[in-house]
Amino acid sequence: MVLILHGPFVQAQDTREAALEYIQREYQVAGGRPDVETLVRLDQQLRALLPHWNWEGKPLSIKANPRNYEDIGVEPAVFEPDVVGYSGKLLREAHAIEPRSHRQFTLYGTVFGIQGETGNQPPNPEAAEAYLKEFPNGPFGLQSHLALGNFQSDLFQVIQGAESGDRENYKYECYRAFVTNAPLSAQRRQAQASAIEHYGALTRLRPDVHEFADWLAQARRGRFEGWHYCAD
Question: Which of 23, 130, 176, 211 has the fewest CB atoms found within 10 Å of its own CB?
Fold first, then answer.
């Protein structure tokens, strides 16, 4: 599939907010139910327009009420209400319409829950693994490795805390479903190995992103300096 930014969209890029308004108009003209190809194209445009990570570009702070764009999955950031982010809503809609169409794109829409990619909840690790198994070199391969690396980083810390008897906290409750009855030490080692695997993949895909190398070093040491999901 070749995604083309059609003339009107390109012309609207005098400002990113104008481009955002154009994307919303195109979505609304279709009655909020564009076909799969259109949804995938709009999803790609939104991702280019609204970087989620600092290595992707500068975040967008818009003048209008950020809630005006919720129908296309654009919402204020969880802890930065003046900045907007894109939740991946249109990709989830595309996958729900026809999961076999443009699947190398839409399958990634299953990785995060209803809160989406900009929410506070962890991803579904099984869905991320399934994406990488089916499309190891797919357009969302990097994002799937990133979701898994960050998930396993957090899970490692949760299990480490549980080994010390700390189970009465928000983080543990958030990850409780992913902690099994197996010995905690074995689960901790598995989480660490998985984090190393996925952060290692990221450093190969994007050796220019210093955060990936830093997270890989932390995973190898077994000492993480921060959290990625389920923030307080």
Answer: 176
